[in-house]
């Protein structure tokens, strides 16, 4: 008997998989907007050209095709699929750069050595630039030429967005955030209602819309909708430390799906809401929540969206906790548990804050067990960053990465995994449910709030 | 004009011209583009030292990466050491520099030592090629530049090894071929991946400075 396998050239079967499956699901890529094919490519190219700068040129010129970045990428390491080699994710854009802006562009163009990028290529690359890159930046640290590949992926996403080539779910949440002010429906009204019942339930004061305050607090919509205890924890800690603070309905959402999806204008609008709210209440400090990309978006890109230096300090909540524990404004009771810390990539590796959470954990007196697989700036990403957790068709990739993450956490033997990013936490919660794992990810902020020592204060 | 005279005379002049003009043009092509202004508050003031730090930070890979890249890293190190030794420490090369500059000279290593390093260079080049053709990410990334650059370097080293034997009448011809192949390599250098010889300082330096500003480790 002959076995007939239908050969579909467009969606080939993945024959090495444990069960036959179409590696690229029915909808291989998503498209937004009505544009002709040629127009889509042109828009992508024009928008990519807007990002041409000295660092980009240096990086595009420098790659020596050594392939080491693959060995640092969780998506390559867990699949062995060469297409997930980080620098390969930039291939069409390298081609565009060489053809349009490199020192020998006339040569490449004249002899067509770098052919024009096609729509099919851009569509194929959607999976590489979105589904299988969390912009965690581990590849940047292995590159012998020092190419910051993660930043290039962010720039390529700008072009992909304008060409309407963004994964559907990521586009949808980004659009919702642009329209409603929050990607998960945490509108100002929802937040205000939530804060009112949280204040009642937990008997804690949550200042809202104060006209003036020293400290303005921002939140991640994941916290507002899924982990509201974080808001209570923040309120308790700020009261304990004696700060004059507020939440503001005109600027509270710290997540930035403009950044993740690649829409620069939305990114700017979202950052400006926070910046303007902080300016309006005369805040000296803006606290960013337990969210990785929110830190990069405001701490390192915020002023550039504003077009001038920010008139206030921007700190991640873990930095705020560490500083105030160190200066004695926050007193904590010891936590007699073994803990392992999962570093949010955008805060630890790419943000420059790997030490603050460790200082906090040390103050709590925990038995800190670092992951032998890599910790601090060498941590492996949870697999859900960069918007990947929103993309359903990327689940298979994310779960594969998560298995590695589970093994690393198990290897520490710690009772309590703790992180300082609600997006990582969400990814861990989803992975935990998927694999029926017996470990839950905890929040550094909430852990500190639970260990506050009010008696030591008075 | 003999072939050797041609290689030592006009061809050398052309080579140096293309090498320096091409490299300068490639570097200018990068620097003519402006960096975007960064208004973020730096974690600390940064300067040239941090760019240099970026260059030095990648001399050795981080420990965490070593298990996965040890083989290619070791091969690359051996190759570069071998190449450096044969370029710098082989007596005729030193004589070549002295003839060209008139006064610059330094002591050479014994010929058998440089011959050994020549062999190391060739073996590591062959290993690099086999690895490039067998490792899936490398196979995917590779293009004409990778193979052509590899070929030109191999050609320069192999013809150099052939020119070691100075006892035959063919010496001048072999030497001329060696010189011409080195010149071919140097002419190609600014245009292909061999330019990492200078690009490495630019890209590593840019990342070094940018990351120091954020306090992010390299």
Word description of this protein:
- The complex is a heterodimer of chains A (458) and B (218).
- With 458 residues, chain A is an alpha/beta fold.
- Chain A folds into three domains: 37-166, Fumarate Reductase Iron-sulfur Protein, Chain B, domain 2; 182-324, Glutathione S-transferase Yfyf (Class Pi), Chain A, domain 2, CATH 1.20.1050; 330-457, Rossmann fold.
- Chain A has helices at residues 37-50, 54-62, 68-72, 74-77, 91-100, 105-110, 119-131, 138-142, 149-162, 168-180, 188-202, 221-225, 229-240, 257-261, 264-280, 292-300, 302-306, 317-326, 355-363, 395-412, 422-435, 444-450, 454-457; strands at residues 13-14, 21-22, 215-217, 245-246, 285-288, 313-316, 338-342, 367-368, 416-419, 442-443.
- Chain B starts with a helix and ends with a helix.
- Chain B has 218 residues and is an all-alpha fold.
- Chain B has helices at 3-8, 10-31, 48-57, 66-89, 91-101, 111-134, 136-141, 144-163, 171-188, 196-214.
- Helices cover 73% and strands 0% of the residues of chain B.
- Chain B has a single domain (3-26, 63-213), classed as Up-down Bundle (Fumarate Reductase Cytochrome B subunit).
- At the A-B interface, α2, α3, α8 and α17 of A face α2, α3, α4, α7 and α10 of B.
Estimate nothing, just give the exact number of structural domains of chain B. 1
Strand content of chain A: 5-15%
Under the CATH scheme, the architecture of the largest domain in chain A is: Up-down Bundle
Unreliable stretches of chain B: none
Largest sheet of chain A: 4 strands, parallel
Q: Biggest β-sheet of chain B, characterized?
A: none
From the spread of the alpha carbons, the general shape of chain B counts as: globular
């Amino acid at each position: 008997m002959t076995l007939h396998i239908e050969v579909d050239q467009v969606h080939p079967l993945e024959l090495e998989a444990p069960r036959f499956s179409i590696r690229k699901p029915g909808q291989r890529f998503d498209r937004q907007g009505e544009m002709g094919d040629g127009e889509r490519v042109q828009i992508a190219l024009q928008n990519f050209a807007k990002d041409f700068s000295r660092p980009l040129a240096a990086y595009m010129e420098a790659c020596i095709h050594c392939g080491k970045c693959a060995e640092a990428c969780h998506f390559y390491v867990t699949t062995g699929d060469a297409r997930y080699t980080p620098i390969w994710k930039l291939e069409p854009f390298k081609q565009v750069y060489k053809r349009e802006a490199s020192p020998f562009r006339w040569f490449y163009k004249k002899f067509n050595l770098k052919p024009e990028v096609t729509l099919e290529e851009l569509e194929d690359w959607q999976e590489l630039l979105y589904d299988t890159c969390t912009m965690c930046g581990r590849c940047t640290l292995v590159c012998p030429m020092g190419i910051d590949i993660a930043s290039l992926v962010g720039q390529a996403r700008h072009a992909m967005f304008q060409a309407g080539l963004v994964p559907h779910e990521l586009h949808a949440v980004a659009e919702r955030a642009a329209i409603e002010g929050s990607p998960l429906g945490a509108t100002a009204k929802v937040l205000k209602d939530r804060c009112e019942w949280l204040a009642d339930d937990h008997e804690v004061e949550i200042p809202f819309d104060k006209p003036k305050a020293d400290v303005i607090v921002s939140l991640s919509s994941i916290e507002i909708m899924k982990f509201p205890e974080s808001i209570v924890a923040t309120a308790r800690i700020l009261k304990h430390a004696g700060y004059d603070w507020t939440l503001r309905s005109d600027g509270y959402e710290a997540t930035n799906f403009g950044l993740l999806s690649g829409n620069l204008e939305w990114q700017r609008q979202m950052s400006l809401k926070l910046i303007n709210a902080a300016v309006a209440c005369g805040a000296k400090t803006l606290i960013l929540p337990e969210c990785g990309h929110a830190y990069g978006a405001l701490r390192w890109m915020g002023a550039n969206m504003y077009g001038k230096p920010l008139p206030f300090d921007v700190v991640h909540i873990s930095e705020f906790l560490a500083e105030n524990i160190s200066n004695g404004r926050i007193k904590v009771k010891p936590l007699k548990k073994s803990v392992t810390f999962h570093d949010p990539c955008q805060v630890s590796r790419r943000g420059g804050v790997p030490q603050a959470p460790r200082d906090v954990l040390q103050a709590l007196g925990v038995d800190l067990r670092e992951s032998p697989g890599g910790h601090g700036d060498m941590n492996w990403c949870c697999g859900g960053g960069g918007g990947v957790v929103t993309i359903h068709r990327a689940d298979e990739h994310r779960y594969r990465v998560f298995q590695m993450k589970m093994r690393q956490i198990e290897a520490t033997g710690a009772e309590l995994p703790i992180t300082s990013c609600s997006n990582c936490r969400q990814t861990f919660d989803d992975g935990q449910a998927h694999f029926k794992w017996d470990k839950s990810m905890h929040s550094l902020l909430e852990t500190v709030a639970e260990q506050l020592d009010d008696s030591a204060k008075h | 004009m003999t072939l050797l005279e041609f290689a030592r005379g006009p061809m050398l002049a052309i080579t140096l011209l293309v090498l320096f003009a091409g490299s300068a043009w490639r570097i200018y092509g990068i620097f003519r583009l402006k960096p975007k202004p960064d208004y973020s508050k730096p974690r600390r003031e940064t300067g040239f030292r941090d760019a240099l730090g970026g260059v030095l930070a990648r001399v050795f890979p981080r420990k965490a990466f070593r298990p996965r890249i040890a083989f290619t890293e070791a091969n690359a190190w051996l190759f570069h050491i071998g190449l450096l030794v044969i370029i710098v420490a082989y007596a005729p090369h030193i004589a070549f520099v002295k003839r060209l500059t008139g006064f610059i000279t330094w002591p050479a290593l014994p010929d058998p030592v440089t011959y050994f390093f020549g062999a190391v260079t060739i073996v590591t080049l062959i290993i690099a090629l086999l690895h490039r053709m067998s490792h899936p990410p490398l196979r995917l990334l590779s293009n004409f530049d990778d193979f052509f650059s590899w070929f030109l370097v191999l050609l320069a080293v192999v013809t150099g090894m052939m020119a070691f034997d100075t006892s035959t009448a063919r010496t001048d011809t072999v030497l001329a071929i060696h010189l011409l192949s080195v010149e071919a390599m140097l002419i190609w250098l600014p245009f292909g991946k061999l330019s990492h010889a200078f690009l490495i300082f630019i890209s590593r330096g840019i990342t070094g400075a940018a990351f120091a500003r954020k306090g992010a480790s390299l």
